[in-house]
Design a protein that fits this description.
The protein is α+β, with helices and mostly antiparallel strands. It has one domain (29-195): Distorted Sandwich (Coagulation Factor XIII, Chain A, domain 1), CATH 2.70.50. The chain contains two helices and nine strands. Strand 8 (172-181) and strand 9 (186-195) form a beta hairpin. The radius of gyration is 19 Å and the shape is globular. The relative contact order is 0.22. Keywords: Signal. Residues 28-194 form the Chitin-binding type-4 domain.
Length: 196
């Protein structure tokens, strides 16, 4: 009887160990409106995405953007080589969300683990940027078009920020959302392809 109980306990421990570590992913949020590249991979809308399809919330990299943070060409993946597929422009072929220049829009994040937050910031590409090239700082407007300070508060599991999309935009663009964490050296990066 003692051997049987020990065998059962060892078996349960072996089953439970992977489950105990399954929830310890380091990343914790992504935009789903407009859907980010990570969200599109997770939903199976886009294939050939590598690991990001299972971890859309994990695009975490150094904060301080644009003065610091991920290098040019690695911004959409937060500088994380595991998710380099997010930096691949796919010839300008990522699916887009239709927007109207100057419209009010609700930008939504899905958050799986809340952090004390400095702010959420939203950048957009300049007119004339090349959607067939990886994202660079020079391709973005220099200032965010929407900045939402949090002053160290923790967001909920769904966060929506209402903002006005810049006027004068036409054609394909990319919106970069940056969630700055207050109590770590990191931020979360989320790229969404849109069309005006």
């Amino acid at each position: 009887m003692r051997v049987r109980i020990s065998t059962v306990l060892v078996g349960l421990a072996a089953l439970g160990l992977p489950l105990a570590f399954a929830g310890t992913a380091q990343g914790h949020g992504y935009t789903n409106s407009p859907p980010s590249r990570a969200a599109l991979c997770n939903q199976g809308v886009v294939t050939g995405c590598g690991e990001i399809q299972w971890e859309p919330q994990s695009v975490e990299g150094p904060k301080g953007f644009p003065a610091a943070g991920p290098a040019d060409g690695r911004i959409c993946a937060g500088g994380n080589t595991r998710f380099a597929q997010l930096d691949d422009p796919r010839g300008g072929g990522w699916p887009t969300t239709p927007l109207t220049s100057g419209q009010t829009f609700d930008f939504t994040w899905r958050i799986s683990a809340a952090h004390a937050t400095t702010s959420f910031r939203y950048y957009i590409t300049r007119n004339g940027w090349d959607p067939t090239q990886p994202l660079t700082r020079a391709a973005l407007e220099p200032a965010p078009f929407l900045h939402v300070p949090y002053n160290g508060a923790r967001p909920g599991t769904t966060v929506t920020h209402r903002g006005t999309v810049p006027a004068g935009k036409t054609g394909r663009h990319l919106i970069l959302a940056v969630w700055d964490i207050a109590d770590t050296g990191n931020a979360f990066y989320s790229c969404s392809d849109v069309r005006f």
